[in-house]
Amino acid sequence: MKWLRRKLVHPEVSVSEEDGVRYLHLGGEHIQSAMRLDAPHALELDYTRTMMGFLLLHPRPTDCLMVGLGGGSIPKFMHRRMRTVRMRALELNPAVITAARGLFQLPADDIRLKVELGDGARAVHAACGEYDVLFADGFIDGDQVPELVSEEFYVAARRALRSPGILVVNFFGHDRRFLRYLKRIESAFDGRVVCLEARDDGNVIAFALNGLPESISWEVLGQRAARLESRLGLPFVRYARGLRRMNRWTRKNLLLAPL
Fold first, then answer.
1. Which of 119, 104, 108, 112 is nearest to 87 (CA)?
2. What is the per-residue pLDDT for 259?
3. What residues does each domain of the chain span?
4. How far apart are CA 197 and CA 58, in angstroms?
5. Residue of 46, 110, 119, 137 marked catalytic
6. Residue 6: per-residue pLDDT
7. For residues 187 and 109, what is the distance between their CA atoms, to the nearest angstrom?
8. Is 137 a catalytic residue?
9. Residue 172: what pLDDT?
10. Angle at 257 between CA 254 and CA 259, to 5 degrees
């Protein structure tokens, strides 16, 4: 593996390359973000692709907030493939923004993309009904950022969302604290949380729902999945089937609210 280091990059941020893929690391060797050099606008890591599964539940977002930028994979993908979406991303570490822009081809700001140096958790606490989708994906060398897994953060996240709205949270499935964090989200969102496993990475994506119906039929999910897969090139049909694994459902419906 070839490691790239630049004086302009903060010491806690490093970049490596292997087999045509460039990786971003924060505070250690855990992979934070990845970009295939010959397909820079694709979502290289399975967990980032799985996070886009939120579209099965909320297919027409307009305003999105991302807490934690990483290499900017999701903002870059949505900016290129979803022209009606506005994305605001906040990142505390200026070196991460430098790396995303200089080494991971994150485009410059425009009317649909705003990348800001700032505290994303604080922005969530300050917001009220401003966003359709809120992404929370904050790690430092494999550990969750404490401010993004607190009860207070999840309550603020729900307040920041419109109705309908959805919070998308990335977890390590093997984290012994995962169920504790999940219970906090369920408490903040009145139990309206569904999970989807990222098949290749061992991650689990939680979708917390604000103002969506109490159930959705498998027929509707199947139709949405086929349209989304055709339009965006991601395996939404597999994601729709995967929603049966960790969630409540009947023969006809995926249940989005507690019984």
1. 112
2. 73
3. 2-255
4. 18
5. 137
6. 38
7. 36
8. yes
9. 82
10. 95
Residue 170 in tokens: 């990335």
Cα 67 from Cα 84, distance rounded (Å): 20
What CATH code would you report for 2-255?
A: 3.40.50.150
SS3 205: strand
Tokens 């401010």 map to which residue? Answer: 147
Torsion of CA 134, 132, 150, 143, to 10 degrees: -20
Q: Locate tokens 């979803």: which residue?
A: 82
- pLDDT beneath 50, residues of the chain: 1-11
pLDDT on residue 141: 56
Phi and psi at 47, nearest 5°, equal -65, -35
What's residue 158's pLDDT?
A: 98
pLDDT at 44: 96
- Please tell me the distance from the alpha carbon of residue 174 to that of residue 123, in angstroms, as a whole number: 29
Least Cα distance to 158 among 220, 85, 217, 207 occurs for 207
CA distance 167 to 209: 7
